[in-house]
Amino acid sequence: GSEMCIRDRLQKVADVLAELAKREWPQRWPDFHKRLLQLAGRGGPRAVRTAVAALANLSEDCTSVEYQQQVPAKRRSQVRDGLRAVHGELVSFLLNVATFGAKQLAVPATEHASAKAKAFGHELLQLVLRALRSFVRWLPFEALVPAPAEAAGGGGGGGDGGGGGAVAARVAKVDARLWPFLTSFAGGSLPGATSA
Fold first, then answer.
1. What is the per-residue pLDDT across 6-23, written as a single tens digit (0 to 9) for each?
2. Handedness of CA 2, 7, 172, 97 (dihedral sign)
């Protein structure tokens, strides 16, 4: 229906924004991330969805084999360095969106637009987790979720390193630490949640 058409258009806008960022940011479009976050802050739910999808695309592309084959190593490095430089702002934004999305899932069933709110909340949470899963592949884990005191002495690392097993373990840790946080707002389980 019309909602699916709108979602497709928003995804296309997000795709274009991510493609522009891969070519122009941070060198020729240094305030891209600030403009993206401003768009999300002023533009309402659709703008938030578009901003999160653009960040997810950009972050995923930094780790995809196809992107690595299409874009010179120097350019890939520049984009990753740009993301690393502003990761605090981006991760904070994503976690705020996750909180908002989880609250949408907790809307009481008696409210008129609760089904639409829940669907939107679920979609936002999926996009946020998609973005964070790709961020964890090239950001230090501590940049995404502060380590608990008892794990402070645990293995370090960061950057791009590690094999597939190390990356999978980091993704599982993000899921294991984020899902309880998100479900606390939803009052139970979230649709699509997977246990690590």
1. 889 999 999 999 999 988
2. negative
